[in-house]
Amino acid sequence: MGTFVSKKGENRRIPAEKEMSIVKIRNQSGILYAYESTSVWDPSKQQARPIRKYLGRVDEETGEIIPTKGRGRKKKSSNTESHDDPARNENLEKIKELQISNQKLKNKVDELEEKIRSMKQEKKELLAAIKKLAKDYE
């Protein structure tokens, strides 16, 4: 139990031990987060203030608190499990193939853009030559 302190004729309970609770707060984007909350008496303002420690995101389906590492990143699972998964390895191979294909397409786009620049320059030179011939013809 807590002790009671009398101030200006009022009795106030001050906990003997810090009582902690888990608080769930939804942010503006609708994500639910969990915090460990402890009340601390602020003598200057004459009221209790919460001290909160971030625990992680709350899975809305299961209600489970999912700890995050850093800025919202979920902790990685153990590497030994993931490398033995054949479906994961197959997906990694597909990703590598797609990355190679993507790079080839990017190179082709670069070549075509260079060809377009070259043709625009040639067009500009031809128009200048036509204008010169038209001027000479007059």
Provide the number of structural domains: 2
Could you say which structural class the secondary elements and strand pairing correspond to? alpha+beta
Mean pLDDT, nearest integer? 80
* Morphology: elongated
Helix content: 40-55%
**Low-confidence sequence ranges:** 1-14
User: Describe the biggest sheet?
Assistant: 4 strands, antiparallel
Strand order of the largest sheet: 3-4-5-6
Order of helices and strands: EEEEEEEEHH
Number of strands: 8
Count, helices: 2
User: How far apart, in Å, are the first and last alpha carbons?
Assistant: 109 Å
State which percent range the strand residues make up: 25-35%
Rg, alpha carbons: 34 Å
Explain this structure.
The protein is of the alpha+beta class. The chain folds into 2 domains: 1-75, no CATH class; 78-138. Helix content is 41%, strand content 33%. The chain has 2 helices and 8 strands; from the N terminus they run E-E-E-E-E-E-E-E-H-H. It has helices at residues 79-83, 86-137; strands at 3-7, 10-14, 20-26, 32-42, 47-58, 65-66, 68-69, 73-74. A 4-stranded antiparallel β-sheet has the order 3-4-5-6, with no helix packed on it. The protein has a two-stranded antiparallel sheet with strand order 1-2. Strands 7-8 form a two-stranded antiparallel ribbon. A hairpin with a 5-residue loop joins strand 3 and strand 4. The longest helix is centred in the last third of the chain and has 52 residues, at 86-137.
